[in-house]
Amino acid sequence: MDFYVSKLGANSNGSSWQSAFHTIQQALLAVPDDRGGHRVIVRPDTYVEANLYPSHRGAAGAYNELVGDFDGRLGSGTSGWVVIDSGDPKAGFKSYDWWGTIRSYSKGWSPAHTGEQFSSIIWDRWAFRRLYATGGDAGIFFDGTDKVEPFSVLVEDCMSIGRAFGGGVASVLSRTGEPITFRRCHLWALDWWGDTAGAYVRVENPAMPDRPDILFEDCTMVGPQCSLKGGNYGFKTSMWIRAKNCRLVTLNFSQPHGTPTDGIVQSVQEGKYMKAEFEDCTLMGYKVFGVKVEKGTESQIQYITKGACLAYVQFQQEVPKGFHRLGHWPVDVFQALLPPAPPRRATVLQNKEMVRRNMCELAPIVWQNRLCHVECVRPPTGGAVKDYYLRLVEAGTGQELARFAEGYSLASALVHAGTLYAFAARFENNDWNDVTAFKSADLKNWASKVVVQQEREHLFNTSVCRGPDGFVMAYESNDPQYPPFTIKFAVSKDLENWTKLPGAVFGTNRYAACPCLRYVDGYYYMMYLEHRSPLHVFETYIVRSNDLKRWWLSAANPVLAVDGLDEGINASDPEIVEVDGKTYVYFSVGDQLTWMNVKRAAYTGPMREFFAHWFATPGIEDVGTAAARR
Question: Could you tell me the pTM of the whole model?
């Protein structure tokens, strides 16, 4: 049985992308039995979750799976990493004992650890694929705590980062023919202090086994203290670790009288408790082998080398027999520290360019066969009435054609029957109020009229388009019935007399703002600003509807995401215009506080093709509407 996780889903039963759960933990708890063969499929996104656990184990020959749709082949509509961030969404990296991606807990570990004991053994016979785990004390790491039982797990193509441990296992036993396996993974530890390693292993065999307990294949293991560690303080249990085609990089090349590491590969208590097998591996660091406690026993570490085993160490250190000493910096190995880049998300927008600096809102229109911009001139905050106004400029030359609407901003614009209409909010009492329409046929004589009045709310950005039966306005509200902000709708026959559309409210469950509305081929398409928590970024999403009440999200969202330092945390406040068969999408970049600029990107085709592209995969009904709340 498959279960789906996506922040775009309805968060109902998780049986499809449309009904997908919003969190990974919800999907793990939905696994119905221990017969195995179940799969949790996650849409690429960032999930701030920690201490994950399933309701059931997998089964022999039928592992359960937790898999990210890295390349989009599983139908999520997008590609990229599934990031599982165990950090504190407000404070940052949560380096705290027994806090990480995978749930395990030792009651009484410290006076502060008063919760109930919990063992990672529940993850027995699960497979992890295409995940990026970070933000806590350990990445994809399994601790059996008080349940030292046979345990098998498969981790493939993952990036796994922790303060103490990038990945590995502790307090478990292994199975013959079913070794614990990490394949094509990047395992990073971030701390020098305490018990830490890129890959950590503690299998509780009373004597050295006759076969490997754990296999690392084509993995990169990185840490400042060591890359691979076995055992623990006071433990006298044995383990056999096999590494094939791996890169072990310990970020310490100190001097002997400085703060050198005990070794790239370490046995904690005593050398004889570790057996390590290397095939076609490269090791980098201060020295190859070491022991933390009984330091004179490092020669007792049993090891096997096969194929080309290379070591690049501090020049005064010996290289054990079976390893070939490298005298040059292995550039290719060091470069391999980087995880593989995810497939670039397909985008039809090209040639991003800066259009206007020190401005947040700008509406492109075609006026008398010329591309023009209605610019919203205003300070970031405060100011006098005279500091707020609109101006029409020719896009190519920057020539000002008109200046009007003093005291107004957050405008959209439309040209109809040779007349320019602008719809703007009035800045008064340090807030935004109502929607006022301005119109002129000659850019000299302007008429104005309040066309939408606020009701126990304030009104902000607008967008107006022609529909099948007249005109439609989308307007942004901070109606206290919903989280700020939401988008409401009104209709008009003549652009001057407007009627609010009852029951048409979008964004009732989240921040949704800055609408850009168009009607094409039987659908209303709306681009808008999404603030997807907990990430503090503002992106442009797209939805469509045939009645303005029920809306469908594009599975390929976002349309625009932050890309580069010059975009800050913002790729939002969208506007769109078609000129000579080519479509331009304008958007704001900046930090939402002190600086904002306007960019645009181009689609080499008409607007109808651009909109249709985003729904090549069936859309997902948005549950954040007034219609869905009924």
Answer: 0.93
